[in-house]
Structures are given as C-alpha cells and as structure tokens.
Amino acid sequence: MIVHIGTREIEDVFLSFRGEDTRGGFVSHLYNDLDRKNIHTFKGNEKVGRGDEISGALLTAIEGARVSVIFFSKHYASSRWCLDELVKIMDCKKLNGRNFVFPVFYDMHLQSMKKI
Q1: DSSP class of residue 14?
Q2: Which of 9, 46, 63, 85 is catalytic?
Q3: Does residue 101 register a pLDDT over 80?
Q4: Any idea where the TIR domain is (predicted)?
C-alpha cells in the first residue's frame, strides 16, 4: 500500500543494508516478495557512492516508513551511510513511536556481533 501525504509517498517498509554484503541475496529476495504482495518497500543504499551524503528522498522514506528492517552484516558498521540511516531510523522511532524496527543479523558470527 502507498499512502500519499501532499506530494510525499510513505513507504510501508524501509530496508537498511550494506550492499556489498547482502545485495543479490536475502535482501533482494525479501524486496521482491514484498513487492509481489504490493507492500511498498524502499531499499536504503541501492545507489550510493562512497562518501555521498544521505539524500533528502532517503530521509523522507525513513521518516515515512511504518517498518524498518536493518540488516547488520560484516561491513554494515564500516559504512558512514549505513550508520547515518541507522541514526535516522532510531531518531524517528523515538520521536513518533510508530516505526517498528526489526534488526536482522545477516551472515554474522557471535564474535562479529560483539564488535557492533
């Protein structure tokens, strides 16, 4: 479902992930399955260059998402972009309380998770 507020589209689900770790795998399958069910989904860092700043469209997508799924993976925490997304997601959760946040630990070992 897509909800329009003025000229803004509100996403049902926002996916935050490190592309080099997860693109083409589980995240793509989840995105495609949600799309088939007509669940409007935004893939967070799909076309991000190194050093790029988080875009206004991406911030709007995070602010409007009802659900955020964060895929913590081997290189997630080494990406400034991913960390900026994470901070924005958690800020929105604190401010409006309606954004459900689901962490997913993707292909990680216990030792790696302790470093995050």
Answers
A1: E
A2: 85
A3: yes
A4: 9-116
